[in-house]
Amino acid sequence: MNTAKRLLQFLLIYAAAVSALWIAKYSAGLSDYLIPSPDEVLSIAIENWQRYSMAVLNTTGVAAAGHMLAVMLALTVALVARSGSFMANLTRTAAFNLQAYPIVAVAPIIFLFLGDGIASRLLIAAMICYFPLLLSFLGIFSQPVDAVEHFYNVTGRSTWKLQVAVRSFENIDKLITVTVGSGTLAMVGAIVAEFLAATHGIGYVIRKALYQSSLSRILVCLFLIGLASSLYLSAVEGAGMFIKKRVTGS
Known about the structure:
This protein has 250 residues and is mainly α. The chain has helices at residues 3-28, 38-81, 86-100, 103-114, 118-142, 146-155, 160-170, 172-196, 202-211, 215-248.
């Protein structure tokens, strides 16, 4: 999906959601205190676009770094866990059990040791998006491609590196899809971290707006988050398709 199409789809979805909100507002005669008018939202956007844009860029940078960290972590755990040894099973169990704890319960410990800076935000973003990556990598690396691997098994040339390479090549479209999709969770993780305790990023802006009961500011933030997320996912997808083209030659 190209960038222009992804952005257009986001704009249509956002416009439909906000339009439904305003239709409900004027149909029920709700006050501007509950649901802001279009003029108020536009005024907030014009007044704060630069500050909010910098905040969402900050968040996107953390989300991108956390996403890459999650990919490397999930890849490492999946490669270790595929062997079936005691250490592999222990690693798999630890990775699964970690996901059972809600991030709001783990976050205070993270902030206690790492503070409320970029390290905490990076770790939380990675923790939220790594699990679907891990499941996909485990499934792909553990599923033999019999038609290809049989020859290497018979000739005694099969190695774990070769198996991983063959299975990755066979499932490259799945790898691209899950990596792109997990980028959304990385953005969510970065925003959650900022909402909980950080003092930078769009999540911090939303937290302040929530305390001020300012839905107009939140709507502007949601628009910028969707815009940044669409651009980032398009970039990740483009990188994945470039790698696929280099690997497959098509």
